[in-house]
Each structure stands twice: as structure tokens, then as C-alpha cells.
Amino acid sequence: MKVLVIGPGGREHALIRALAADPYVTDLHCAPGNAGISRDVSTHQIDAQDPAAVLALARELGSDLVVVGPEAPLAAGVADALIEAGIPVFGPTKAAAQLEASKAFAKTVMAAAEVPTAMARVATTTQEAAEALDAFGAPYVVKDDGLAAGKGVVVTSDRAEALAHAESCFEAGGTVVIEEFLDGPEVSLFVICDGTHAVPLAPAQDFKRIFDGDQGPNTGGMGAYSPLPWLPAGFVDEVMERVAYPTLRDMEHRGTPFTGVLYCGLAITTRGIRVIEFNARFGDPETQAVLARLKTPLGGLLMAAAKGELDDAELLHWRPETAVGVVMAAENYPESPIKGATITGIDTAEAIENVSVLHAGTTNNAAGEVIVDGGRVLAVVGLGADLHAARNSAYAGVAAISWDGAQHRTDIALKAANGQISVSEGTH
Ligand code: AMP
Ligand code: GLY
């Protein structure tokens, strides 16, 4: 099977590694990729958000399957162009990707499908925003309605800050969604969908804030681990029954069946499971941790989904170990990351047992060195018998790598390793 992966980041590097391990995948390409991906497979410098360019490349390569990583090409209609040309694609159509691209649309679907989520109001003026903030009370949650790479959300107890974020979205011509605050631990569950059937991957937890102790601004994600030893038994089944299947049925009913990853971002609150958000793709950096444990060949799974041939009963096989991924980010991320620093120690880190290094924002300079080329630069994934061991592996890898201004969190999966996450019984 010839596979083309679309995207530039750490999630795509993880997809490439997992696809390369599938014995049925004979030919693997990526566009545009990054410095790490280009060491593993051939990369192609096209505009990945241009449906015609992606289609032309898939034709030229004779791709049997195209796997689209990020949200922007999906929202731009890359999947639609491939479907129209008869090329199997793993990723939703532009219409189905609205589940991520518009938070207001996602709320409409959840209401119709009776999926539990935060109460929300849409606001288009400062007055409406102020009224919604006062209706829900602090802490305030204000979300830009459109795609914002995980950075369009402000959660704060400062009313002035909440209102200022809403106003900045209005000034940019946008709409905001204001929500009730959801307490409780967060879980990311990736559900592989073929339009009708659905198969869940192992749950993961992501760390959104830039600094230790969940301080500082939101980022795209600073680390992740999987599986989650503190989850109540039956959690995944409950999410499938109450969230994934009702959503799939509603999307089918609307004439926009969903194929690809339905990423369920969930909070386990004192009042039960609530959807925080849907995404229409794999999460980054959760994918780096989740796929490190997947034993089932990934290419076959994604091809079955793309062709509408997924069987709900499909049993996935997982390594018994735990995976922890730690993101190393550029100086000044998430505000305005500073690019260009030379990275050292990647090979040393990869030589450590149970450590792998996945590239995100990296490129090569003229001398062939790997340099910083984005906000999130690398994800260092460690495998281990338990969370402590996996953390030790990941952080041993991180310690081997350096560049000027590199930053990472030191507390990824720490609370879970110490047994400090609890979910009240019977509330989910
Ligand atoms: P989103 O872009 O909707 O995923 O939001 C990004 C992050 O903001 C989430 O992962 C949560 O940590 C936080 N967040 C979003 N919505 C809520 C909410 N209603 N209550 C509490 N935290 C939230
Ligand atoms: N890790 C969060 C995301 O991919 O949106």
C-alpha cells in the first residue's frame, strides 16, 4: 500500500513512524514534512492547504491512501478533492470538518445528538458577551469561534480579561462562544470513524499550559501520556455510547457523514462526562504518546476507515507499556517563537533505550544541521513499565537535547504517576 501523509508536525512524524511499521505499507511519503520526517521518508514541498496541489501529488505518487494530519487542509477541502478523484483519504470532508472548524456548529450537533457538553452562548457584540459572562459567572471561558490552533481560548477569573478577549475576537471580525466552566480532569479520546462505524484508540491526557503546574497561557500542547491508570472502568464505552455514536449518527443524518478521527476532548466533572471540544483530526502531542503503544498495523486501520469498511468490533492491540511524551518548545513560545537555533543531541537521545524523538518545528540549515523552525520543536517519547519509568525515559531523552532558549515542562504525567488524580465514583 502506498501512503501519503499531509502535514508538517510532530503528529505527522508519529503517523509516519507507525505507518512505516505496518508491513503492508510499501511506500510512504509526506508533504511538506520537517527535518525529522525527511530522514525517514521522501518529503515534498507543496502547499498542503491547496486541494489541487495535494491531489496532483497523490496522483503523481500513485498513492493508495492519503492521511491528512492537520485541521487547516481539511477545512480547506483537501479530502473533498481526493474523494472526488476516487482516491481513498483518511480525514473528513470540509463540511464534516466543521465539527472542529466552528465551535458553534459543534454545539449545534451536540445539542441535536444530546451529547453532554458545557452550556454555552454565542456572542457577536460586547454587550452580549458581558451578559453571557455574568450569566455563567467565574471562572470565565471565552472561545474564538474559528480555528485558532488551540490558542483562541481564554479561561480566567478576571472578568475584564475575559471581556477583552471577546472584544479582540470581534475586532478580528469573529464570533465568540462563552461557556460554563467545566471542572475535573481532561481526557483526549481519538475515535477512528468511517462515517458509520467507530473504533476508539487508547485515551490520553494532554498538558495545554506552557508552564509547570498548569500556569501561563494555553499552547497547542506541551506533553501527553497514555493510557490513563486513573480512569474509571467503562469510561471509553460510555464515551462511545453517549458521545461518539450519537455524533456520528447526527452527522450522517445531516448528509455530512464523518470519516477520520473524531477527537473527543472531554472533562470528567463532578456531574459526569462533558465534551469540551471536538476536533476533526488526531491531537498533537497526544498522538505521539498513543501511537507509541499501538501494535495493530495503522495503515490497514486507516484504509478501512477511509473505505467505509471499519468494523466496530475491530480489536486493537496495544503494548502493555505506558508512553509519556514531553514537548520541547522554542524560546518565546507560544507568543512569538524564536527560530534558527541549532539543535544538538537528538541522536544521543534516540540511542537511549525506550526513547524516540519526533520532530515538529524543525528544518535543516545550509550546513545540514537541524535547526528550530517553529513553536513546538520536538516531542521526546519514553516508554516504560509504568508512568514513573516512562517519565524517566522521556526526561532522559530531553536532558540529552539542547538549543539556545529551549523550554519544556518538567511535570508531564507527574500527578498521575504520584496517584494524585482522582475521579469521584458514580459521577460519570
Ligand atoms: P478548546 O480549544 O475548546 O479545546 O479549549 C482549550 C482548553 O481550554 C481546553 O483543553 C481546556 O483546558 C480549556 N477549556 C475549554 N473549555 C473549557 C470549559 N468549558 N471549562 C474549563 N476549561 C475549558
Ligand atoms: N493537543 C491538543 C490538540 O491537538 O488540539
From TrEMBL:
SUPFAM superfamilies reported for this sequence: Glutathione synthetase ATP-binding domain-like, PreATP-grasp domain, Rudiment single hybrid motif
Name of the protein in its database record: Phosphoribosylamine--glycine ligase
Domain of life: Bacteria
Similarity annotation: Belongs to the GARS family.
Pathway: Purine metabolism; IMP biosynthesis via de novo pathway; N(1)-(5-phospho-D-ribosyl)glycinamide from 5-phospho-alpha-D-ribose 1-diphosphate: step 2/2
Lineage: Bacteria, Bacillati, Actinomycetota, Actinomycetes, Micrococcales
Molecular-function GO term, any one: phosphoribosylamine-glycine ligase activity
Class of enzymatic activity (EC top level): ligase
Organism whose genome encodes this protein: Paeniglutamicibacter terrestris
Encoding gene per record: purD
PROSITE patterns: ATP_GRASP (PS50975), GARS (PS00184)
Record EC number: 6.3.4.13
Required co-factors: Mg(2+); Mn(2+)
UniProt keyword terms in alphabetical order: ATP-binding, Ligase, Nucleotide-binding, Purine biosynthesis
